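User: Modeling request: complex.
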Amino acid sequence: MKSWLVIGQYVPGNSILHRLDPRTKLLLIFSYVIIVFFANNPASYAVLTFFAIGAIFLSKLSISYILKGITPIWFFIIFSFLIHLFFTRDGEVLWQFQQITIYYGGLIQGLTISLRFLLLIMVTSLLTLTTSPMEITDALENLLAPLQKWKVPVHELALMLSISLRFIPTLMDELDKISKAQASRGVDLKTGSLKSRIYAVVPLLVPLFISAFRRAEDLAMAMEARGYRGGEGRTKLRQLKYTMLDYQAAIIYLVIIIIFFYLRN
Amino acid sequence: MTKIEFRDVYFRYNEDENWVLRNINLSINADESIAIIGHNGSGKSTIAKLINGLLIPQAGDILIDGEKITERNLWEVRRKVGMVFQNPENQFVGTTVMDDVAFGLENRGIPRDEMVHRIDESLREVGMQDFFLHEAHHLSGGQKQRVAIASVMAVQPEVLILDEATSMLDPLGRREIIQTIQHVRQQHGFTILTITHDLDEISSSDRLLVLQNGKLVIDTKPRDWFAQTEDWESLGLIAPFTTKLANILKDHGYRFPSHPLNHEELIEAIWTYNLKE
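Assistant: Request completed. Predicted assembly structure:
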């Protein structure tokens, strides 16, 4: 349960990656995610891997910490590797045992797919590891602001996001309280068949939802009392500013991308 | 100068329900501090929400500075009337203390430089200046309520309404809040309305309003009311020991010049009692 929650949880720090403007990080990583799918030979993969490792190095987080953080993802990586290994019929046969045949093409395919997967997860979790949820929300609001011309409620969405982030710990505490309260009334959450354990979740979720609705009502009232009436005419305390660091990062990234496109076939 | 005025106000939440408030007439001066008490469902929170324009009465008028609250001046009214609610958790909008205080300022389009200055000032006033970047779940209930007070103060309201703001706190947190409010009131001198069950809050007010079944039944000085009433339980209050003792002494023929509100006053009254005779 815990390790699921740790995926990409923000680790405060003061590394170069922490200090980059969240918009820069968001844009770089978003484009990286797309570019990963353009890699088609060992050299281009090497460039991407070099970039990912370099970024981890700059974040001052240990590689083992990041790998541990993505534990639950390992299952998918290994699973997709095995699927490709066993089911791709391409190239020469490497190994045969009764019904199972492994081809050279399958091995390569499996390796590249899992490497792609690993790179994607590592780089995106690097974003959330070095950027607080609030910064990501601000960056999104800022980057998506032009969409307001087409009546997309960007400000409202960003506010919703930041309020939900703010209430996650509150609701977790609440859930903990409710599960203790229900356990004291004899609800068994820890033993029994999978089916009975799934049923046992119902008496946790119903009170949680009811209290969440009540909180929402209170919060709406408090927001209105404090003069909230939508995004119009609102000023912002949090400001984002591109610094020298951001320009440097963008230039280095561009150079890497040019090398990447030069190396791929 | 009259700050808030209720004229024949009736209110109910639904057409087919009973009136929550019936024929309320009330006028509150700018420099007064008022305590409102009443048992659950007596309509005391409704009064608070009416003053802030969160609810609109079905009949009668509510005036702030002589101006009737309407849809048109609603936002101006909400700037003047700040409100602190009961649940500390559910009124914390921002992710951090700083964001939460900024929320009300952002809503009013205050320029950023001014905002930074006001946040700093108001957090200092409630003694939370060391908690700028703390997140809501790392604060105690009392600290969250202090932040809520700071967020209201930052907007510089003229009326402060505390809707059972201390009822979910432990005694220590409660004392913190009462002290904080007294401190900010000395600094700014605004009208203050406290909806409460807490006797300390009642006795520190200038004026006491008692609501019963949606009607304003008593409008007096706290001291006078403490001296007369025997009807504590029906209002959801527990009579303080000093009041009980003072009343029993009175039954035995003791005459105090004014009703003692706390330990010190009672001791003072008792030890000087025979000196006067």
